[in-house]
Amino acid sequence: MAGAAVLGRLTWLVAKVVGVAAETARVRTIVLDVPGWPGHRAGQHLDVRLTAEDGYQAQRSYSIASPPGEPLSITVEELDDGEVSPYLTRELREGDEIEVRGPIGGYFVWEPGGKDPLLLVAGGSGIVPLMAMVRHRAATGDRTPTRLVYSSRRIDEVLYAGELEELESRGDGLEVAVTLTREQPPGWNGYARRVDTELMREVAWAPEQHPAVFICGSTGFVEAAAGALVALGHDPLGIKTERFGATGGG
To answer: Are 24 and 89 in contact (CB under 8 A)?
Structure first.
């Protein structure tokens, strides 16, 4: 099973860029063709390694955005002080090659067919591994009742907005709640505050429904979201979290 792979046993593979798409002004999705890729589970990540002409190497980890069985893709946000992300978001073109290693991580993963409802809570680009889960759910025809709570600063920083709207419109049990914490456009009828206990009380599944919970974002966001759910009576053992640093770098 892909999730059982041990980092020390993974080898670097040459990945050819077969597609680059802008998600926002600072975020790109990169589609890769990786001969020898062993497959992955929704929620896992991979390492990317760049090698300069002088031999200098830099590597970072990125969440996998694509669901299992579909062309491998990552979604990368450019960081101002980044060493790898500016190249991936500005310079990389179709036909270029990079090195990847993975998949990595067997804890923060979701498989369809569970009996409990699903609660996904994302802060900023923490949506990426959760989007792999949403896409996997859709691709497999799974109808697990699912609620996605997505916190972003502004509407133009919301990733996958059109796709999420389309998936929610299918009426197969996916509900999406977006909250914009810094700025809201005219006529905005979504939420306009940080993820806290009151917001979770409104949008999350009730504790007695025992949802499977996945939270991804910055450390502060993850702690606030998880703390709010525990305060509402959710079982801490049912909450899986992933913080920036394990899934994204510079």
So the answer is: no
Please check whether residues 138 and 175 belong to one and the same domain. yes
- Spatial separation of the C-alpha atoms in residues 30 and 26, rounded to whole Å: 13
Its pTM stands at 0.93
- The alpha carbon torsion through 182, 169, 139, 207 (nearest 10 deg) reads 60
Count CB atoms within 10 A of the CB of residue 238.
14
Residue 248: inside a domain, yes or no? Answer: no
What does the pLDDT look like over 223-243, one tens digit per residue? 999 999 999 999 999 999 999
Edge-to-edge strand ranges of the sheet holding 174-180:
174-180, 146-152, 118-123, 212-217, 239-243
Asked if residue 228 and residue 126 are part of one domain, the reply reads yes
CA distance 207 to 210: 5
Please report which helix (H) or strand (E) contains residue 226, including its range: helix 219-231
